[in-house]
Amino acid sequence: MGRLEQIKEKWNQLRETDSLLWLITLGHTFTHWCPATFFLLLPFLVRELNLNYSQAGFLITARSVASIAINIPSGIAVDVIGRRGLMMALALAWTGIPYFLVGLSSSYFWVAVFMAFVGMGNYLWHPAAISTLSEKYPERRGFSIAVHAVGPNIGEGIAPLLVGVLLVYFSWRNVLFLNLIPGLVILFVLWKFLFGKPEIQGPSKKGVSVSHYVSGIKSMARNPHLLLLVCVAGMRSMTQTGLNTFLPIYLTNQLGLSSALVGLYISVAQTAGMVSTPLAGGWSDKSGRKPVIATGLFSTSMVLIVLAYFQVAWLFIAVLALLGFFLYAIRPVIWAWVLDLGPKDLGGTTVSFFSGAQSLFSSLSPVLCGFIADRWGILAAFYFLAGTILLANFIVLAIPEARKEDAAFVGKTVESQQP
Questions:
Q1: Nearest by Cα to 222 from 343, 396, 385, 122
Q2: How far is it, in rounded angstroms, from Cα 105 to Cα 115?
Q3: DSSP secondary structure letters along 234-276
Q4: What's 342-375 look like in SS3?
Q5: What share of the chain is helix, strand, coil (3-state, %, to 5)?
Q6: In this structure, what DSSP letter does residue 402 have?
Q7: Alpha-carbon Rg of the chain, whole angstroms?
Q8: Torsion sign (Cα): 328, 332, 333, 334
Q9: CA–CA gap between residue 250 and residue 77 (Å, rounded)
Q10: How far apart are CA 35 and CA 168, in angstroms?
Q11: Cα torsion at 28, 33, 39, 43 (round to 10°)?
């Protein structure tokens, strides 16, 4: 009976949510559609260009490293300039174009160059979108960010299914060209119904002052709990990026599965995450962020060990479903906890600082996993990822739970310093 009441409560929350959240979630769907597509195409690119695991990993690392350069400036633009609608529009436009250029490239050098640009659209999106939701729904921050995080699960769940089928009939290059179509449709919908809304502008027309901005940055740098949480998020992101890079290669080139079946396997993980994400976000609003994150991290590490140890094809469906359920559920909860601890009127900067740290950790994962896979086999890379996320769980246990009165403390401190 208790579980039924919880489900009814979540359903009522969804019904009461206005269109702003759903439209922003739609945009977030496409910013993750293209990366999900590319991960499925990567085995075919590796085969055509005759790449080893380290070279394949470097392509994803190049994307993550370049993303670090865009994170901090985008957060500054959101908080100081306050042009959130413009930032989201640019993010959508910049998401698909670099992948289109990758499809035109015939050498590893040019593929690597264009891969350095493909992550910029995705990371332009987060500071504007998440800071908007944090201000719009302060009492339901975990839930609203969780719904926003369902967007990637939808994009990364549908894209592998569709692309897996398309690869049966088209080359990987033609699939990249076709990828622009859903982006253009979503961009038109959001331009028509979202970008003119006043809710997506900054706290004021001119944004915050530079001195106030600097004070907020200093307060974040002096917060050890926030810095530890950034490390946890980075390790979780390492695991996700490593799996996204090498799991399709393993399923395609090692197990010999068809592209359609690989797409189905990846979609199963994303669908499980789509179910668990809003549940975890709502649970964290009531029970606290720490128990949700700790449970998710520990469970993810155990599932990864099972995935690497039992090399049975039929078992992958169940294991990937559990992996997606736990791995993706904790992502929005970590975001919510970071925003709880950060200055409330510098949401864009908090998000960009947080995303930059995640990009830094993510940039290490493909190269490290590629080196491990070349030296000891691809399954050893999965064991490495399991150990990484298990270490993140121990770090979470060292972070005190943020109470509501503590969550607003930093923001109030910065406000008191504003002239």
A1: 343
A2: 11
A3: HHHHHHHHHHHHHHHHIIIIIS---HHHHHHHHHHHHHHHHHH
A4: CCCCCHHHHHHHHHHHHHHHHHHHHHHHHHHHHH
A5: 85, 0, 15
A6: P
A7: 20
A8: positive
A9: 40
A10: 19
A11: -170
- For residue 145, which of 380, 338, 404, 383 has the smallest C-alpha distance? 338
- Summarised one tens digit per residue, pLDDT across range 295-354 is 888 988 888 888 777 766 666 778 888 888 888 888 888 878 887 877 666 666 677 677
pTM above 0.70, yes or no: no
Which residue in this structure is represented by tokens 């939808």?
A: 154
Residue 413, H or E segment: helix 409-417
CA distance 348 to 34: 23
Neighbours of 327 (CB within 10 A): 25
The number of residues making up the chain comes to 419
Residue 15 parent element (H or E) = helix 2-16
Structure tokens, 198: 């006043």
Judge whether 127 and 75 are in contact, CB under 8 Å.
yes
Q: What is the DSSP letter of 37?
A: H
263-296 pLDDT, tens digit per residue, is 888 888 878 877 788 788 778 888 788 888 998 8
Alpha helix ranges (H) inside 50-171: 53-76, 84-104, 108-115, 120-136, 141-169
Nearest residue to 193 via CA among 1, 344, 75, 22: 22
Structural domains of the chain in order of their starting residue, each with its CATH number: 17-417 (1.20.1250.20)
